[in-house]
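User: C-alpha cells in, sequence out, please.
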C-alpha cells in the first residue's frame, strides 16, 4: 500500500481545507493511505499558537500591515525559507514523521515545508522522496510558494499556471489539477430550485472576523430584502446570540449557524454566498456553482482569488452594506437574469471533482506505469473555461 503525507499549517483555513479535501479523495481510493499532519504544532509549541493569533489579528485588524509583509516575502521569498531552516525543532519533527509514515510522496499545502523537506527526507533515509507543493491561491501567487525545491507545483487553474511560467518555473513542473475542495461537492445533491417564480432567494452570509460589520449588515438585509437569510458565525457564539435576538426584535426569520459540519450540502442549497475572498471559500463557491459576493479582499494574498471570480463573471465585490443590498437586488431582478448568468459561469469554471483528480494525478507520479490509475475528470493541461461556457445545470 502506498502512503502519502499531506503537510498543512493553521495560518488561515484555506490550507486545512485543501488538506482535508485531498485526504478525503485519497480515502476513497484503494491501495493508498493518506495522513494529514501539521508539524508546526508539536515543533513550535506556544510560539505557534501566538503566531497564529497574531496572523489572524493582523489580517482582520491591520490588513495594510499584512500587505507590506506579503510584498516583502514576495520580493525576498527565501527570507521565510531560511528562517524556518534554522528552526531545528520543525525539521526534527518532520524527520520523525517521515520515518514513521515512510511515504512515497509528500504534498505541502503550506509553502514553508518546501524549503526544508529535501533536507528532512535525507535525514530520514528517504533521499528520493517525491515532493509536491499544492498552491492554494489563484493568480496573485507569492514567490515563497514556488522558489523552493519541489518535483511539481499543483495549481488550481490555468491562469495561475501562466503566472508561475512567467515567474520562471519550468513548465514541466506545473500541473493544473484544480483546488481540492471536499469530494462531497462532486456527489449528487438535492435539486436547488432556481430563484423566482415563487422561490425566495437563499442567501448565506459567512462572518469572517468582522462581527461589528455583521450586525448592521444583517439588520439591513432583513429590513430591505425579501430573502431567506442564513448566517454562519463559526465559533462566535456571542455574535450568533446577538443576531438571533436582533431578528426576533424585528420579527424576521433568520437562520443562525455555528460551525457547519457539512458545508458542501449547505452551500449547494444556497443561491448566493457572501464572504471574504479566501482561496478555499472562492473555490468552494465555484464548485457549488453558487455566485459569491466579496465583502473583504485581503491585499496581496486574496487579490488573485477575487480577480479569478470577477473576471469570469462568477461574483461581485461589495465592500459596503449598500453595495451588498444593491447587488443582491440586481441579481434577482428581471427573472433573476443576472443570477442565472453568474450561475452558468460558475458551472463553467468550478471543479467539484478536483480533489479526486489531484489524488489520482499524484498516484500516477509515484506508481509504475503499468500500475498507474486511469485519468479522471479534467486533464492537467486543460485551460480554465471562459465565462458563460456550456455546462449541465444543477
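Assistant: Sequence out:
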Amino acid at each position: 500500500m502506498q502512503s502519502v503525507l499531506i503537510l498543512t499549517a493553521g495560518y488561515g483555513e484555506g490550507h486545512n481545507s485543501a488538506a482535508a479535501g485531498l485526504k478525503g479523495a485519497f480515502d476513497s481510493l484503494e491501495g493508498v493511505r493518506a495522513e494529514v499532519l501539521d508539524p508546526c504544532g508539536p515543533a513550535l509549541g506556544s510560539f505557534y499558537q501566538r503566531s497564529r493569533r497574531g496572523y489572524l489579528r493582523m489580517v482582520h485588524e491591520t490588513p495594510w500591515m499584512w500587505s507590506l509583509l506579503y510584498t516583502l516575502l514576495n520580493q525576498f521569498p527565501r527570507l521565510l525559507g531560511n528562517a524556518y531552516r534554522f528552526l531545528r525543532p520543525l525539521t526534527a519533527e518532520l524527520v520523525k514523521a517521515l520515518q514513521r509514515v515512510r511515504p512515497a510522496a509528500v504534498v505541502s499545502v503550506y509553502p514553508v515545508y518546501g524549503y526544508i523537506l529535501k533536507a528532512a527526507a535525507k535525514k530520514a533515509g528517504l533521499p528520493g522522496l517525491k515532493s509536491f507543493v499544492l498552491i492554494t491561491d489563484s493568480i496573485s501567487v507569492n514567490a515563497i510558494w514556488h522558489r523552493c525545491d519541489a518535483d511539481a507545483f499543483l495549481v488550481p487553474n490555468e491562469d495561475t499556471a501562466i503566472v508561475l511560467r512567467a515567474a520562471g518555473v519550468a513548465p514541466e513542473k506545473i500541473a493544473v489539477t484544480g483546488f481540492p475542495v471536499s469530494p462531497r461537492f462532486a456527489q449528487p445533491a438535492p435539486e436547488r430550485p432556481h430563484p423566482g417564480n415563487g422561490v425566495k432567494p437563499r442567501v448565506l452570509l459567512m462572518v469572517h472576523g468582522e462581527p461589528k460589520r455583521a450586525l448592521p449588515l444583517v439588520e439591513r438585509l432583513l429590513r430591505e430584502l425579501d430573502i431567506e437569510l442564513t448566517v454562519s458565525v463559526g465559533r462566535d457564539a456571542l455574535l450568533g446570540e446577538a443576531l438571533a435576538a436582533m431578528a426576533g426584535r424585528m420579527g424576521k426569520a433568520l437562520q443562525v449557524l455555528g460551525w457547519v459540519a457539512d458545508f458542501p450540502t449547505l452551500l449547494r442549497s444556497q443561491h448566493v454566498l457572501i464572504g471574504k475572498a479566501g482561496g478555499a471559500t472562492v473555490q468552494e463557491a465555484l464548485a457549488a456553482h453558487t455566485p459569491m459576493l466579496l465583502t473583504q479582499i485581503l491585499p496581496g494574498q486574496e487579490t488573485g482569488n477575487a480577480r479569478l471570480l470577477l473576471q469570469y463573471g462568477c461574483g461581485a465585490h461589495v465592500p459596503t452594506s449598500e453595495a451588498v443590498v444593491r447587488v443582491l437586488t440586481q441579481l434577482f431582478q428581471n427573472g433573476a437574469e443576472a443570477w442565472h448568468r453568474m450561475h452558468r459561469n460558475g458551472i463553467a469554471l468550478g471543479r467539484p471533482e478536483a480533489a479526486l483528480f489531484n489524488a489520482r494525478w499524484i498516484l500516477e507520479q509515484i506508481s509504475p506505469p503499468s500500475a498507474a490509475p486511469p485519468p479522471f475528470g479534467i486533464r492537467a493541461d486543460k485551460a480554465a473555461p471562459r465565462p458563460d461556457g456550456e455546462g449541465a445545470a444543477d
